[in-house]
Amino acid sequence: MTILVIAEHDNKVLAPATLNTVAAAAKIGGDIHVLVAGQGAGAVAEAAAKIAGVSKVLNADNAAYAHQLPENVAPLVAELGKGYSHILAAATSNGKNILPRVAASLDVDQISEIISVESADTFKRPIYAGNAIATVQSTAAIKVITVRATGFDPVAAEGGSAAVESLAATHDAGTSSFVNEELAKSDRPELTAAKIVVSGGRGMQNGDNFKHLYALADKLGAAVGASRAAVDAGFVPNDMQVGQTGKIVAPQLYIAVGISGAIQHLAGMKDSKVIVAINKDEEAPIFQVADYGLVADLFEAVPELEKLV
Amino acid sequence: MKVLVAVKRVVDYNVKVRVKADNSGVDLANVKMSMNPFCEIAVEEAVRLKEKGVATEIVVVSIGPSTAQEQLRTALALGADRAILVESAEDLTSLAVAKLLKAVVDKEQPQLVILGKQAIDSDNNQTGQMLAALSGYGQGTFASKVEVSGDSVAVTREIDGGAQTVSLKLPAIVTTDLRLNEPRYASLPNIMKAKKKPLEVLTPDALGVSTASTNKTVKVEAPAARSAGIKVKSVAELVEKLKNEAKVI
């Protein structure tokens, strides 16, 4: 068995999610090769070669792969993938974009967002936003899988010494082109990757009051999220929404402020390691999942918390 | 320009699903079913394209049981012109659905296909990308903005940490993210009118598509339950617990 892991990167830096994906590959067992598809991503290939447990790195360097356009990268992966038992990618926006296109090209079903490896052909994955866990077995000759990073502890980034092989293959479908990219310049971490998340709900009363959460978040190095109620009320934009129809987060610490705990919201954060709830309504359902609950007025508690941490 | 929109009938997002005692799946008996939220956004986007004069006809398609006609009627009430149900009582994988949609695309020849980025039941996030692969079209997934101009479409996509804009040659596939739009509600007169709009029922056999799968769900379990922790009396106690007991700050 040989497993192909698709590296997540921006042509400069290898993204940490790759290490979690290699960890999932190691649990499956077998040789692990890493594909770096990009342009001028030599430093990424070198970093991938150092990952513990990786035996070969394939570096496909071409302008067509520069922006990870799935129309160009998926045919490359599908062509290479024919020699492998498994193809794995992190369930990042790139992995989710590219891998189903690979699976369909290979005429196999994909298994999305696995959180555990039961055996080489059987995996667990959350369905219904984590309200149920399905065990899925694949009979496909090539198993195409995306990996939820929070399900696997990363392997060591150093320690390996894999050979780097350059690939000459070029796939340029000509159906798509990159226009531009705007990456948020916030100093706060990205919501789904943050170790600490501070979220506000309807109890925040208005958008201006979120400044209390931003202040606390900046002190903690945390990302700021919101419940659907807060988004629907127009306090904050949609991209901050944590929940079944928003972002699924699983940080080390989740602080829910003025959030009642609707099912919709719980589905998006209940895999967090430690949950803190601050709410003045002691009957709020959020307290049923919180490790530490504080019944208090958030407008007093949050500034005090900011001072003490 | 003809726009095809795919919609899925799923458990309503406000329902707390329960796993069946025999671990064969989740209990869907007597549970409220709705249109998948991301599919509502797909329908809304198509209707807005028609209102802007970009789309001339909206065809809405669903793959599912005969009861999915309810969701198709909802889409018709929201502004779609006609509907197609590919009826299948089985639980189909994303690849099977993508193959059926490909057959509908071949028949209808739309310039743009809009789908939700994922269904909130299976959470696969695969169908749009797979349809794009099978049809050889460009894909703009997780769209927060869609602008058609001439023979191409510019799609702004939600990506980790920001937004990316790509330009796709038409015909193309777009999958919707939450920020794309806020879906309207159907008005009563439109709900009445929708009952008279055409709804065609097809079968996978009639489309010549095999729905065989390489994935088998062995069992479905409830997730490990989270038990309630403790109530702290003050912010100071909370900070102390987070530092010394949970060791997360």
Order of strands side by side in the largest beta sheet of chain B? Answer: 9-8-7-10-6-1-4-5-11
Largest sheet of chain A: 7 strands, parallel
Give the CATH level 1 class of chain B: Alpha Beta
Structural class of chain B: alpha/beta
**What letter string, H or E per element, gives the SSE order of chain B?**
EEEHEHEHEHEEEEHEHEEH
| Total DSSP E strands of chain B | 13
What is the highest CATH level, the class of the largest domain in chain A?
Answer: Alpha Beta
Strand order within the widest beta sheet of chain A: 5-9-4-1-2-3-10
SSE sequence of chain A, one letter per element: EHEHEHEHEEEEEEEEHEHEHEEH
What's the overall geometry of chain A? elongated
Shape of chain B: globular
**CATH level-two architecture of the largest domain in chain A:** 3-Layer(aba) Sandwich
Amount of beta strand of chain B: 25-35%
Helical percentage of chain A: 25-40%
Helix fraction bin of chain B: 25-40%
- Quaternary state of this entry equals heterodimer
Output the radius of gyration of chain B.
21 Å
Counting DSSP H or I runs of 4 or more residues, the number of helices of chain A is 8
Keywords (chain B): Electron transport, Transport
Pfam family, one (chain B): ETF
Family (chain B): Belongs to the ETF beta-subunit/FixA family.
GO molecular function (chain B): electron transfer activity
